[in-house]
Design brief:
This protein is α/β, with parallel strands linked by helices. The protein has ten helices and eight strands. The chain has an eight-stranded mixed β-sheet, sandwiched between helices. β5, α3 and β6 form a beta-alpha-beta unit. The longest helix is centred in the N-terminal third of the chain and has 15 residues. The radius of gyration is 17 Å and the shape is globular.
């Protein structure tokens, strides 16, 4: 169970595969396990390094101070710990914002950056959604209620054609022993309330944007309004969980772009 002590947190991370290092930064509410569909497709060509961001997974304590800047510093500290002076980075959703901030702070270390289902924007609707989900979790509603409300925002509509798949996803989520608590979720939401994305939309390192055509949380028109000047791909049929809806497409785009910018 790899850990790295960094300042006020004990950072849990996982590393597997061989090849140039690929730092993988998870989104809001998510930890290193969110990368499962993509790791199996990439670890034959990359060392895939996944970190549990502050408030998530096995990183402790859950209530340590949290911000985009601190999570960026944590990720860089883990890469220092592993001896990686340069690396590729992919970030999903909030992890994409961390990636863009890293490109501002340490672009010389990033051979390439891949921003998936993300953009440096704040939509009031998303904040309202997350606040409502936290309220449901803190109520006396059945524990699966908030997940049933969340899933349509994450996955493409095809997923719901198979009710058994949804029930399995719910069961897996509820059984996961390191799931983020409601209090930790509310704490992490503060990082999204406070970040300033006005100066991170033009990274100094090679960067591509991967946009889910059916993304409800970061809709394509919103994403491309701020990142359309970068190389980008719209992944058809993919929702916000782009790496779950279309893992093969995402993996192919990562391989191709990273190959153009070797370490």
């Amino acid at each position: 169970m790899p850990k790295h002590e960094h300042g006020d947190v004990s950072l849990h991370y996982e590393a597997s595969g061989s090849g140039p290092p690929l730092l993988m930064l998870a989104g809001f509410m998510s930890d290193h396990t969110s990368w499962t569909p993509l790791v199996s497709l990439l670890e034959d060509q990359f060392e895939c390094i996944r970190i549990d961001n502050r408030t998530t997974g096995q990183t402790t304590p859950w209530n340590a101070p949290v911000s985009i800047e601190l999570m960026c510093a944590d990720a860089l500290a883990v890469m220092d710990h592993l001896g990686h002076a340069r690396f590729h980075v992919i970030g999903h959703s909030m992890g994409g914002i961390i990636t863009l901030h890293m490109a501002k702070e340490a672009s010389e270390r990033m051979a390439s950056a891949h921003v998936a289902a993300s953009a440096p924007i704040r939509l009031a609707r998303n904040t309202a959604l997350f606040e409502a989900l936290i309220a449901i979790r803190r109520s006396n509603a059945p524990p699966d209620t908030w997940l049933r409300a969340l899933f349509p925002w994450l996955f493409n509509p095809r997923v719901f054609a198979d009710p058994s798949a949804i029930e399995q996803a719910l069961a897996d989520s509820l059984a996961y022993p390191h799931a983020q608590s409601a209090d930790a979720m509310a704490h992490q939401l503060e990082a999204l309330r406070d970040f300033d994305g006005t100066d991170i939309a033009s990274p100094a390192c090679p960067t591509q944007a991967l946009v889910g055509a059916l993304d409800l949380i970061i809709p394509p028109d919103h994403a491309l309004a701020v990142l359309g000047h970068l190389p980008h791909h719209i992944v058809e049929g993919a929702g916000h969980s782009i790496h779950w809806d279309a893992p093969d497409h995402v993996a192919n785009h990562v391989r191709r772009f990273a190959a153009k910018h070797p370490i």
